[in-house]
Amino acid sequence: MRVMGVVLLSVASLAAVQAADIEGRVVIKRKLTRRTVTASARSYERGVSVEPGSSQDENPLAMDRTRVVIYLEGNLPSKPVTATLEQKNRRFLPDTLVVPAGSTVTFPNLDPIFHNVFSLSKPKTFDLGNYPKDQTRTVTFPKPGVIFVHCHLHPNMAAAIVISPNQWNTKPDALGRFTLSGVPPGSYTIVAWHKAAGFFRQSVRVSENRAIGVEFVIPLDESGAANAVARR
């Protein structure tokens, strides 16, 4: 038993030494996301009035950076998780979510009004119906892809759930910095996705115990838009 324990420890140590990080930065030069025009609560609600949350005071470039999803393509291990997409102040929070294939997302209603959650996206189509405050619905997403989520009752509500093919996924911080930790050595395609800009891909080679640097510049002019379409 002691010999087996030493062997297992050695294998684990070797795996830790071999793994490396992919560190990177997302550069966004101009605002990507258009402002959402929301009807007044009185226009289509009865009973309790819930004013929509606003992001107008936020830095638009910082906000767009946090709406980028980064992940690795390829047949790599996937560790499903349980994540939450809230319905609060007549918004989906967060409005961009990334989870690995096989994960479950819960949709709690935190508003004192009815909400609905549905998607017509090809990777996973569902309609959770209308449900009141403090009730929750759940959906499991077995296949990779982008899921666009909406509410039948409130047309302004929209979110995107990116189902990555494996466990290596993340979102940048407000400064655009991101890290994919513990990536096994090898050659990969790293993907950046933004709802308004589309997909951007780069090839990376990960060496043992050595950090790799990547930069994604999200193009916003006509040539950049054509480039984004070409990479989809």
Concise overview:
It is built from three helices and 17 strands.
Q: Could you characterize the architecture of this molecule?
A:
By secondary structure, the protein is mainly β. It has one domain (20-230): Sandwich (Immunoglobulin-like), CATH 2.60.40. The chain is 14% helix and 42% strand. The chain has 3 helices and 17 strands. A 4-stranded antiparallel sheet has the order 13-2-15-16, with no helix packed on it. Strands 14-1-17 form a 3-stranded mixed sheet. Strand 4 (86-88) and strand 5 (91-93) form a beta hairpin. The chain is globular. Residues 1-16 and 224-232 have low confidence and may be disordered.
Strand and helix map with partners:
Elements: H1 2-18, E1 20-28, H2 60-65, E2 69-72, E3 82-84, E4 86-88, E5 91-93, E6 96-100, E7 103-108, E8 115-119, E9 126-131, E10 136-141, E11 145-150, E12 158-164, E13 169-170, E14 177-183, E15 186-194, E16 198-206, E17 212-218, H3 222-230
The DSSP helix count reads 3
Mean pLDDT: 84
Provide the number of structural domains.
1
What is the makeup of the main sheet? 4 strands, antiparallel
DSSP summary, beta strand count: 17
Run of helices and strands: HEHEEEEEEEEEEEEEEEEH
CATH architectural designation: Sandwich
Structural category: mainly beta
C-alpha end-to-end distance: 52 Å
How much helical structure, as a percent, in the residues?
Answer: 10-25%
Features:
disordered C terminus, globular, disordered N terminus, Immunoglobulin-like, 232 residues, mainly beta, 3-stranded mixed sheet, 42% strand
